[in-house]
Write a structure and sequence with these properties.
By secondary structure, this protein is of the alpha/beta class. 34% of the residues lie in helices and 26% in strands. It contains nine helices and 16 strands. The protein has an eight-stranded mixed β-sheet with strand order 1-2-4-3-5-16-6-15, with helices on both faces. The protein is elongated and about 85 Å long. The structure holds zinc ion. Zinc ion binds next to loops.
């Protein structure tokens, strides 16, 4: 039976699983009820299963019937601290938690791929590692799973790694999009405390006023970004908080601010990590005042390998037709901890449109919105695409 038809047969079971996950979302690295549902859905499949120690991950290895290498398929499983207002009849029953980024679809789609590949394993040229990952939303669950050995789960080096991410808007339902190179931005956080010496507002020369120094740093950052970064390899620094002082005639001890820092290449990312703290400290020092700087590197840029991207686009075109597969011109401004997997293993991350039929994709609520709606009908496509990618990549490796 053709892959896509068999995937369609699994669709009702995948929808049931997805909706059960959607109604019962969990946050962060500890997702015990989600883990339980995944284990129940995988029950009976010929998989070697390992559970996470420091997080509720599930790593499942399928051994192919023919010899060959190994590939990894990843699905993240965590929800967001958002109270759902989408109006769907399977909406979250947990106040303050919602699958607003569609990770419930990623989980169910990966279960679908595990089922399909298990059925077809006699023809499989090697092994597949299924990475069910908690804590994508700011908890770096990917690195935690890497530390616990997910990349070595097959007992041999991985040839490639793939992940899908659904989109509630932008792409029409069922469409697939990706690009070679950077697919999501790096995301860091800059925190600054300018430490002066408090005093009377009438006598600034006897104090050390942190406010004008902090203001100068904020504007200098914007100037620095325009002078130090290639227009076609930009950086974005947005100061989102700024706090100082209590009243008009008191010079405060400190002024503090925080910024989000985004970049789209390793080069730009390295320049920010090295240059921003130096700029902040240098301006403070010029005023004879001290600045404490914390630069937290969160997620690096997610970089798709050209060959793996070409294979992924070709596979999607063969499955779904030329007109529903799009090579995106730009990276997304979001960020992803799958970046840490792609730093070690060549691979690709693909976007899959999950907007409901008839939705105006240009204006539909986006991922992370309490109003976001992700349509189930895309589940069979996710499962078929991941399955075909694993099969083709393993066959390619065996032929090489
Ligand atoms: Zn997400």
């Amino acid at each position: 039976m053709p892959l896509i038809e068999r995937a369609q047969e699994l669709q009702p079971a995948l929808v049931r699983l997805r909706r059960a996950l959607h109604q019962d979302p969990e946050l962060g690295l500890d997702l015990p009820r989600t883990q339980e549902k995944v284990l129940a859905a995988l029950d009976g499949l010929p998989l070697e299963i390992t559970l996470g120690k420091g997080l509720s991950s599930v790593t499942a290895v399928l051994r192919g019937g023919r010899s060959g290498g190994a590939v990894l398929l990843r699905g993240d499983m965590d929800a967001l601290p958002v109270t759902e207002r989408s109006g769907v009849d399977y909406a979250s029953r947990v106040p303050g938690a919602m699958h607003a980024c569609g990770h419930d679809l990623h989980t169910a789609g990966l279960v679908g791929a595990a089922t399909l590949l298990s059925e077809r394993r006699e023809q499989l040229h090697g092994d597949v590692v299924f990475m069910f990952q908690p804590g994508e939303e700011g908890h770096n669950g990917a690195s935690a799973m890497i530390e616990e050995g997910v990349l070595d789960a097959a007992g041999k080096p991985l040839d490639a790694a793939y992940a899908l991410h659904v989109a509630a808007n932008t792409l029409p339902g069922g469409w697939v999009a990706t690009r070679p190179g950077t697919v999501t931005s790096a995301s860091d956080q800059l925190s600054v405390t300018v430490r002066g010496k408090g005093g009377h507002g009438s006598t600034p020369y006897s104090a050390k006023d942190p406010i004008p120094v902090a203001c100068e740093i904020v504007t200098a950052i914007q100037t620095w970004v325009t002078r130090r970064f290639d227009l076609f390899d930009p950086a974005v620094v947005t100061v989102g908080t700024f706090h100082a002082g209590t009243t008009q005639n008191v010079i405060p001890e400190t002024a503090t601010f925080k910024a989000t820092v985004r970049s789209y290449s390793e080069t730009a990312h390295e320049r920010l990590i090295e240059g921003l703290p130096r700029l902040v400290r240098g301006i403070a020092e010029a005023h004879g005042i001290e600045a404490e700087v914390t630069y937290d590197v969160m997620y690096p840029v997610t970089v798709n390998a050209p060959d793996e991207t070409a294979l992924a686009l070709e596979t999607a075109r063969d499955l779904f037709g030329e007109d529903q597969v799009w090579q995106a011109p730009n990276a997304s401004n979001g960020s992803e901890d799958f970046a840490f997997v792609l730093r070690r293993v060549p691979g690709a991350m693909l976007m899959v449109g999950a907007a409901p039929e008839g939705a105006d994709v240009a204006h539909a609520p986006m991922n992370h919105s309490p109003l976001a709606v992700f349509d189930d009908t895309v589940l069979a496509r996710q499962a078929a695409l991941l399955t075909a990618l694993a099969e083709r990549r393993l066959a390619q490796g065996a032929a090489a």
